[in-house]
Design brief:
single chain; alpha+beta; 2 domains; 3 helices; 3 strands; about 35% helix; elongated
């Protein structure tokens, strides 16, 4: 096993996480990490559902519970969505009757 940050072999066990998986620490750079982290990709249908709920102006905490994702991931997804939107709004004036 190697450190994911510095690729050093100077690794020692450093307890375990809340799920019981062992935690390790690198003696050289002092980085802590889990040996075999789960690959938790968010499916596209879950992303689409979160986008639809965002348009409904639902609270982020409620969206996270309904979709089954963390609030942290949801907040970063919302930030990325809004970053892609144009900053300038096109406003047309209404014609006055009379």
């Amino acid at each position: 096993m190697q450190c994911p940050q510095c690729a050093s072999d100077q690794i020692v066990k450093n307890g375990s996480i809340h799920h019981g998986k062992p935690k390790y620490v690198c003696k050289e750079c002092r980085r802590q990490f889990v040996g075999d982290p789960p690959d938790r990709r968010i499916p596209d249908d879950t992303k689409a559902l979160s986008d639809r709920l965002l348009r409904e102006r639902m609270s982020l905490a409620g969206m996270a519970r309904a979709v089954g994702v963390s609030e942290r991931w949801l907040q970063s997804s919302v930030n990325a969505t809004y970053a892609d939107q144009p900053r300038q709004v096109q406003v047309r004036s209404k014609k006055k009757a009379g």
